[in-house]
Amino acid sequence: MRSDHAAPQLFSVELRTARWAELVEWYRSVLGLRVLVRVVDDGYALLAAGDTRLAIIARPEPGEASRRWSLGFEVADLGAVHARLTEAGTDVIAPQENPEGFRELTVTDPDGNRLRLFAWMVRA
Predict the structure, then answer these.
(1) DSSP bridge partners of 73
(2) Which residues of the chain have a pLDDT value below 50?
(3) DSSP one-letter string for 5-17
(4) Is the whole model's pTM more than 0.85, yes or no?
(5) What domains can you pick out in the chain, each with its CATH number?
């Protein structure tokens, strides 16, 4: 294997949806992602998710949500995210501790896509 080529970097993950405006608003206001690009006429939005981006694309028949994958988001304050999700009426359980040193919760977006949100625990 040649080592003179850099490995590809993940630029974005694309979600296709029939509920474009609702999904863009949920990821913006509930999850707290920043909208970088929003083209309403084309049904396209690009949101900042750390070093990666989340593209939300309008499609009349986007297909079913899959349980084979989830979007994983590291957050600074899992308690605040949990409160925001609860306030928005999202079905979510309290964060759980993982023996590997983080707290996490699992939730689904309005389209049924699974998200894992986690924060590292600080040990004294």
Answers:
(1) 117
(2) none
(3) SPPP---EEEEEE
(4) yes
(5) 9-61 (3.10.180.10), 68-124 (3.10.180.10)
